[in-house]
Amino acid sequence: MTIITKKTPLYINIIEKLKREILSETIHGFLPSEAELQKMFGVSRSVIRQALAKLEVEGLISKAQGKGSFVLPVNRIHRVVQSLNGLGMQIEKMGTMVNTKIISFELMDYDKANQFWNEKQALYLARIRSDITQPIAYIETYLPTKYQRWLTPEKLAHASLHQILKQDANIELERSTRHIYAIAAPSHIAEYLNIPIGSPLLLLKGTTFDKNNNIVEVFSTYHRGDKIMFDLETTI
């Protein structure tokens, strides 16, 4: 029997567990029957039906008459990891609308500012990228303080950071080093992305350089695992 907590309604616990397994593609095809789920979770049939109804509304499962509930394919936005184009630019090229919410725009102490830019502080940005319906990524970025002359929260809400740096500051991006991690969503990011704490995230950390090998930005982008997948292209 699966142990579930009692701090929240029983059906919510069941939804979150099944959702994690569906979005991580741990389970495919038909779900166990209502009777089997009832036995697994140790709850009443009505609680199971309430949970399944919610998963169906969210578009994660569907019902087949006389056969039970089955998992629907998970649709995700594809991000080309090796491209210097940011997430927003890539989404727009796919013909999908993207919205940006600025959470933070401030000068703050940064332990690597002296090493990278011979400064004590950096310009810190925190942004949320959303598609038409919901948030999909949380982005933290550190930049040299001099970039504050070209950047404003208003500009960043309506244009790509890279576009602004290229057009207004005449900065040509040359390359980027990147690292990818799979992590569980911490509480503050889960709240911003409107997902349960511990949900799967794809973390892309990187450093971007200009044509003179100067560091332009250091960033960490937390992508919702249920909304975005990474594409890689390799050659021999």
TrEMBL record:
<keyword id="KW-0238">DNA-binding</keyword>
<dbReference type="InterPro" id="IPR028978">
    <property type="entry name" value="Chorismate_lyase_/UTRA_dom_sf"/>
</dbReference>
<protein>
    <submittedName>
        <fullName>GntR family transcriptional regulator</fullName>
    </submittedName>
</protein>
<dbReference type="InterPro" id="IPR050679">
    <property type="entry name" value="Bact_HTH_transcr_reg"/>
</dbReference>
<dbReference type="InterPro" id="IPR036390">
    <property type="entry name" value="WH_DNA-bd_sf"/>
</dbReference>
<dbReference type="InterPro" id="IPR036388">
    <property type="entry name" value="WH-like_DNA-bd_sf"/>
</dbReference>
<dbReference type="GO" id="GO:0045892">
    <property type="term" value="P:negative regulation of DNA-templated transcription"/>
</dbReference>
<feature type="domain" description="HTH gntR-type">
    <location>
        <begin position="8"/>
        <end position="74"/>
    </location>
</feature>
<dbReference type="InterPro" id="IPR011663">
    <property type="entry name" value="UTRA"/>
</dbReference>
<dbReference type="Pfam" id="PF00392">
    <property type="entry name" value="GntR"/>
</dbReference>
<keyword id="KW-0805">Transcription regulation</keyword>
<dbReference type="GO" id="GO:0003700">
    <property type="term" value="F:DNA-binding transcription factor activity"/>
</dbReference>
<keyword id="KW-0804">Transcription</keyword>
<dbReference type="Pfam" id="PF07702">
    <property type="entry name" value="UTRA"/>
</dbReference>
<dbReference type="GO" id="GO:0003677">
    <property type="term" value="F:DNA binding"/>
</dbReference>
<dbReference type="InterPro" id="IPR000524">
    <property type="entry name" value="Tscrpt_reg_HTH_GntR"/>
</dbReference>
